Amino acid sequence: MYQADSSRYETMEYNRCGESGLRLPKVSLGLWHNFGSNCDYENMKAMCFTAFDHGITHFDLANNYGPGPGSAETNFGKILKEAFGAYRDELVISTKAGYDMWEGPYGNWGSRKYLIASLDQSLKRMGLDYVDIFYHHRMDPETPLEETMEALAQIVRSGKALYVGISNYDGAHMEQATAILKELHCPFIINQNRYSIFDRTIEKNGLKEAAVKAGKGIIAFSPLAQGTLTNRYLNGIPADSRIATDGRFLQASQLTEEKIACMRGLNEIAEQRGESLAQMALNWVLKDGVVTSVLIGASKPEQILDNLSVLKSAPFTSEELENIDALSLPVLNR
After folding, report:
1. Which of 43, 80, 108, 320 is the most exposed place for a label (fewest CB within 10 A)?
2. How is residue 231 annotated by DSSP?
3. For the segment 52-84, what is each residue's pLDDT rounded down to a tens digit?
């Protein structure tokens, strides 16, 4: 029977999420990969236990995480039932809806019908009465933003979520969502977006600036750019790597000679700091205090422990940040 480590909160840092009362761990665990129906269940449990034993209280899911869709929630629900039930009030559990989930016209995007139905399904899969954060997963170009935001507000009023968030929005739409949700007295507290040394979209589309202005938190996913900001691909493509075994999100063609040279240069800066490339990349995302939490993914418990080394990272010097930009920006701008 699992029993959490009594010292689990001693080393973790917890940041206030924007101007809300909720605090999130500096490092959160995402279940995007490696919690699907094709994954080892005992390894999933070990990763959850390792995370929680080291103060990671936030577990992030979505309706379509797997593979197949829904299986990450089902497996996490099984872990909750078997081991985590006693710790529910110490956990922040989030899920999302917005991408294609079931056949027909009602299983995608941002309609009121889809969002409410999807969360009901998610709660059943996880065996929960509520989630702590429910996100709209992506902007919908056809559904009025007012309808989507009213659905989020109704979800909170129904008691099925404590807070709401939006994911993959740009700055302009985030500002509109903020205004609507403020009028509805809905506790919108967080934005989830891709952010890394190799992906600075939220700096270009106004999201990062708008979040600061509105007092909303940001949680960053893919901070290691699908493993390209680790030592994984510095010397070629390993046979057991995600590129070789999956290929859905990172292809070999993306690892150009120029990008590999950049990765090696970044690794040299990390070594000079006494850090791994992954540790430095996570610290870069968190460097200015705007990002509340960084979402890590893992395929084994040891990777979680490695990523937690970011908690020991020293601040960057201005020279280090300039050198990181000098290496990475030319690659991004091509």
Report:
1. 43
2. G
3. 999 999 999 999 999 999 999 999 999 999 999
Helix or strand holding residue 173 (H, E): helix 171-183
Can you give the pLDDT at residue 248?
55
What is the Cα–Cα distance from 219 to 292, expressed in whole angstroms?
A: 6
3-state helix, strand, coil in the chain (%, to 5): 45, 15, 40
Cα atoms in the Cβ-side hemisphere of radius 13 Å centred on 73: 25
- Report d(CA 28, CA 62) in Å as an integer: 14
Name the residue with tokens 């190799």.
198
List C-alpha distances in Å: 80 to 2, 70, 74. Answer: 11, 15, 10
CB atoms within 10 A of CB 129: 9
**What DSSP line would sit under 84-139, residue for residue?**
IGGGGGG-EEEEEE-S--SSSTTSSTT-HHHHHHHHHHHHHHHT-S-EEEEEE-S-
What distance in Å separates the CA atoms of residue 53 and residue 11, rounded to the nearest whole number? 10
Tens of pLDDT, residues 170-182: 999 999 999 999 9
Place of tokens 């507000």: 153
Please give the Cα distance from 147 to 153 (Å, whole number): 10
